[in-house]
């Protein structure tokens, strides 16, 4: 029974999605901290410092997008994730993975 006057029973799906965003944010934070730690433990060259700064910036962008999405999911009818936000999350994730490989090698 749906109509203009009825409210949507979303069940637990929005809560699971919020928790998934929180887990992903936590994992991203751990990766960023480990990459920053590894980069700053090195010789302190300008490339290491620049890599640490870029890693921190990427992490902040990811954190901002995730926070906005978590807040949007609190609504009764959450908005669809914008394509720009989805692209930002993908770019941040791939960039952190690339920097992690660069730090390891």
List the helices and strands and how they pair.
Elements: H1 13-40, H2 46-72, H3 83-104
Helix pairs in contact: 1-2, 1-3, 2-3
Description:
The chain is mainly alpha-helical and 105 residues long. Helix content is 73%, strand content 0%. The chain is built from 3 helices and no strands. Helix 1 (13-40) packs antiparallel against helix 2, helix 1 packs parallel to helix 3 (83-104) and helix 2 packs antiparallel against helix 3. It is elongated. The model has no long low-confidence stretch (mean pLDDT 81).
Shape: elongated
Question: What is the SS-derived class?
Answer: mainly alpha
Distance between the termini: 58 Å
Tell me the Rg in angstroms.
18 Å
Give the biggest sheet. Answer: none
* Helix amount: over 70%
| Mean of residue pLDDT values | 81
Low-confidence stretches: none
SS summary, helix count: 3
Number of strands: 0
């Amino acid at each position: 029974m749906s109509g203009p006057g009825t409210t949507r029973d979303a069940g637990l799906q929005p809560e699971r999605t919020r928790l998934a965003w929180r887990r992903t944010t936590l994992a991203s934070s751990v990766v960023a901290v480990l990459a920053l730690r590894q980069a700053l433990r090195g010789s302190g060259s300008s490339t290491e410092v620049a890599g640490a700064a870029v890693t921190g910036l990427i992490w902040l962008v990811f954190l901002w997008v995730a926070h906005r999405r978590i807040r949007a999911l609190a609504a009764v009818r959450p908005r669809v994730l914008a394509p720009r936000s989805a692209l930002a999350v993908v770019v941040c994730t791939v960039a952190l993975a690339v920097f992690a490989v660069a730090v390891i090698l």
